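re the bet — no i am not wrong, look at it urself. input seq straight from the record:
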Amino acid sequence: MDTLEVPLVYRCPLHGDITYIWAGHCWSYLAVVMDLHTRRVVGAALSDKPSGALVVSAFEHAVAERKPGPGLMFHSDQGSQYASRQFRRMLWRYRTVQSTSRRGNCWDNAPMERLFFAAVEIGLTLVSCKLIYGALI
């Protein structure tokens, strides 16, 4: 039987979210992109501002890691960072389809919330944030 085999990784969406971390004297913002098939973090970025540039950076790390083709789906909440012109232009450049949650619908964000909760459980500290940030520069 002749079938076109499409790698599963290209058919599974990416999921993004932002969390904030107290860094001793100010807040730091961590944007993470997760592969929903493997539940593995494939992109991350850390900044002192929760801006569109932060989520663009995290997504570009994910694209560099996964090297997806056109038609990739990216899911997030309706946060201003994901609705920003900068982020939407970047999605267009990579031919990525954007998917967002309905207002007040938190259930589809559960994988990311679990990741952030696990990070707090294991003690995500400023030192580990500095290590993450240094590794992503």
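see?? Helices lie at 8-11, 52-66, 80-83, 85-93, 110-121, 126-136. told u. also The mean pLDDT is 76. so pay up
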